[in-house]
User: Fold these one by one.
Assistant:
Number 1:
Amino acid sequence: MASEPMRKRTDHWFTRGWVIIVGFILTAVLATINWLQLASLERSLGGVSVPETQLLGYGVDYVGVVDAQMTDELLERYGASHYLWDVLFSIAFALTLAMLARRIARGRKTLWFLIPIPVLYAAVNIAENFALEALMGADQITSQAVMFASTLTVLKTILFVLSLATVLLTLGTRPRPRP
């Protein structure tokens, strides 16, 4: 009888471990699909990179070059990449890292420092998508709109790196088994 509760608890942790593994696989697949979509779009733009791949930011002139080559069909493909693949990636990435942090930190105070970073990354990445969509669809490109989108791109890059560091920190804060 005593082994039954222990087995349920073990099965629960084992199942949740599989959810995290599936989350990492899903995140990798979504990132790959999004990257392939953006690479295809860049080829269609004559080799010009789309703004969100400029991890250290960009200016009005750069966005003007991209916008000048953007046709209605390419703009639609760009939006599809943002609204589907990149949003799904952001959500899967944040949830997977949050589940991993929750599983390893197990209620310790460290957890509240680990979870917000990937969630902020997802929010900034989605906000960047909307800012770039508004920017590319605008009749006139303003320096303020470009600066806002560029700032979100740089912030997204920083938060992504911090999110990956969070994974390492989470693994480093794992409680040691008691003898």
Number 2:
Amino acid sequence: MKVSEVLDRARIILQDADADYWEESELPMWLSDGRLETYRMRPDLFEVSEDFVCVEGARQQLPNGARVLFDVPRNVSATRQRAITVADAGALGRVRPNWRSQAKAQEIRHFLYDERSPGQFEVYPPARDGVVIELSYAKRPAAVSQSDGEVELEQEGEYAAALVDYVLYRAFLKEADTVPAFHQRAAQHLAACHSTLTGDVTAKAVTSPNEQK
């Protein structure tokens, strides 16, 4: 579904094809918020696998403001391109308590991920600057504007209909102060959005990389 299709469907339901009540700039802004809501609830829809250039040391920051790491499959720049496995921070700390200060390496053996700090991860041994590894993570969706009408919402795919409900939720919520009945209408659209996104979440849920251990 394209950006324009989401916005057109929302305006049909709002009976505001000429943007008399909701300005043209408003609905794309709420669509962008809806994409972030989708990212929060279904990060698996935004999974990408990319080469990642490490900074020197153990601690690495997920790119593009991402908050969800799925896996660090392998070395890319190292000659052997060996697989990288997830490690337990507590176990590694007991065996090598000073591992973060050890010599920097060209080849990574393990990665560590703490859900309490979702925007970052660590590598073992600490990396030399410029080491390249493969990274599987949920990439934050880009904001959209009215001029992005032909942009295809590829990540959302079959769930793009949920974005229509999110836009309607925000539209009706804005008017709820003057039309109290719109509070309920807004809540219904938000519930429909969440239901679409999570209806089959059991089958599609992606677990933390720590579940691999």
Number 3:
Amino acid sequence: MPDTTPTETPFEADRPMSPREMARWQNERIKDTWRVFRIMSEFVEGFERLGSVGPSVSVFGSARTPEGTPHYDLGVAVGRELAERGYAVITGGGPGIMQAANEGARAGGGVSVGLNIALPHEQHVNPYVDPEHDLTFEFFFVRKTMFVKYAQGYIVLPGGFGTMDELFESLTLIQTRKAARFPVVLVGTAYWSGLLDWIRSTLLDGGFISPEDPDLLVLTDDPAEAVDVIDRFCAEAGISPNF
């Protein structure tokens, strides 16, 4: 088995390190230094390749949603509606609802972007991502930066931990004013209503969030209505669709 014991630094050691211990510590330092450059390269590639995409919307949802199910079909409808109104569709590039939104973007004749993540179980990019807009990231935090930096809004369909992470990341950025108050639309009232009830009855009533914070979320079942919210924001902000 590989040695996973944390490497003690010369400054923490209670005795002089042996040459072997010093070599191990130095190797770890080199790995950390090069990791900085790997992170930087992912930011640079993401900025260069997404900077010309134009007004976009990030769509999130479960990777586990099978094709032909109501949630999958809803994802296709959302992607198509966005594309037909001129927005590039950005997803995590994987299967499930991500694939559905990319499929809809392709069907609507729009730009289909996939920001894939390298995972131990080897998530592969779905076939509906435009080859020139297919990016794979090693670091989650770089990938999440791209979702926010190049999107005029979020549309969030039913999903699990990853979807919740992306949802609450967006709310935190808006709440703390680290990002503009871009629209965050939840699609699927049956799925999301319980969460919204908990936000109001537990977070708001308990004083954990401000009275206006629940208004950061819009809930609908209608893909057209979801994109209407994005349209209104873009009109007010003076942002034009891609075409």
Number 4:
Amino acid sequence: MELSRFRELLGEPSVNGDVERDWWALEGRAGIELPDDYKAFVSAYGSGCLNDQFYLFHPRGVAGDDGLRLESLWEQAGYAYAELSRNAPDMYPYAVYPAADGCLPIARSSSGNHIFLSPSNGEGNGWSVVIDMGAWVELPLPFTDFLWAALRGGLEIPLVRGEASFEPMGALEP
């Protein structure tokens, strides 16, 4: 999906949009190549809050309490979901990174729920979006198609409410 469509909902992107610079080191360390549409959106808009409900993380977000660093989210969610799934495996049907073929957390709601990207299933399907909102839902959509539908009220699940907005938050490392 063309990022220019998001300008009518979220305003002009506020970050440099340098996808290679933003993602090269992270993907190398993780051994994962994330979907291009997701990387392009995050590189354009940066870290911030969508509709005062979901925090989107960036690979160059500053570490610590004031930052929205993507690797920090991966570490926190990976640890938490590993513990939770050990105690109640039926409630956690998806593995979470760093588990092999685990879903990668990319956003967290203000209530602590997560949005993930799930790697290709090997049957020719690309990345999909997985949501843990108390119940797990997998949406076979690329990230930007999912986000567009969520912001416009086009999903069957009430994920995002209210008028579409994006508030940049947290600083990015140089």
